[in-house]
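On clarity, I found the account of how folds are encoded harder to follow than it need be. For illustration, here is how one protein appears when written out as sequence plus structure tokens.
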Amino acid sequence: MWTKKEFKNWLELLQSDNEESIAVALGMAEGNANVQWVLDLYLYLIRLHTYENMEDLKVVEIADVNCDLSFPEPLVPAYEWVSLDLSNFMLENLVADISHFRQLKFLNLNANRLGHLPKEIGELVCLERLYLDDNRLVALNPALAKLQRLENVHLAYNQLKNIPLEFCVLSSLKVLNLRFNDLPSIPSEIGQLERLEVLNLAQNDIKELPIEMQSLKSLKSLLLYGNRLNAVPEWLGTLPRLENLNLEHTGISAKQLPTTLLEKKEAGILELYI
């Protein structure tokens, strides 16, 4: 594990104008997971933006050696970005500085080591698509309720124990992916998501569907495979736009399905998997 001073010296080599110094820094990063993510981000930023004066590009500032990423003042031009991909950077913490990227519409944090989100995530009020698949999240920050423009949220392969009620006030939400978590139930408030089109709850511990879900009039796809459902409610067959329903490996048989679902399947209106 490098010390803070060693990180600083390495960054100075990487950001120098001397080709030999840069080559040394690249060599130091090879096989070193603690700095490889910094190098990847540095190269990503260079690839994403062209700077007239490369000395203005100061990519990272290491606050400590626990994979905290901060964005100092020289990165101010980047605060106007609308897209940021920080997937596969082994990030353990998302620092408060993320709040400066207020123009972001797309943020990809897939395949990191995030155990929580800072409250500053709620400052990204322009955000439309948020990807947090394959992290270590056990809960979500209530500040997400401020992101009223969110249309797509992906939280698969985490350790979530519940669907936060804050999600149920995201009036623009169209896609919610929560597969492969530890969810035992669905809150009744989910019925407030009137624009929701895709709901993926596969591979959780859900046993019942709340009756309030019958208000999801825009729902087209409902994926429930791998749960242990007690029954399939009658109202599920009344959802007007439902096109895809996956009930595989839920313990439900065709004999337990409402007649309305079977009729829609026979009419070719519904793709039904059991």
